[in-house]
Amino acid sequence: MIISHKLNEVLKVADTVTILRDGKSISTYDVKGDGLTEEMIIRDMVGRDLTQRFPLRRSSPGDTVMEVKNWTVYHPEYHGIKVVDDVSFYLRKGEILAFCGPMGAGRTELMMSIFGRSYGSRSTGELYVNGKPCVFKNTKAAFRSRLGYISEDRKSLGLVLIQDVKTNIAHAA
What we know:
Blueprint: H1 7-13, E1 16-21, E2 24-30, H2 38-46, E3 64-74, E4 82-92, H3 107-114, E5 122-129, E6 132-133, H4 139-144, H5 154-158, H6 165-169
Antiparallel strand pairs: 1-2, 3-4, 3-5, 5-6
């Protein structure tokens, strides 16, 4: 048994597929016998046909809204160890930029260090937002500049579990 959102892999390895939505079993297919396709799975997952799986790009990306140059982050306890070494990237208006890699690759540490220097003993490099150099000394300064961070670990870093939903929703503000 596998549980996955990677539909192409599901179609390659599964003999039978059951689609769940809102905690209920919606459909079960014999992959080969029913000629199951990704589109059929998606339809059952979302409850309707999707005429476009991906939104149309209305225009080409615009101006650079964020740029990081030569960013290096040092371990919070072992100050001589680099966790992120000389990373540079830019983001243009209208783009979605993704950072991927296995655990320990430095992607979380990179993002947290940019967001108000909330990771590492120190960080070096340059950060530009809308062409202006920025140094965020803490997360509040980053947030005031309209930069946000959404943790990959919502339970331990994204929520205050002893607080109510209302407090958690407004927590970042």
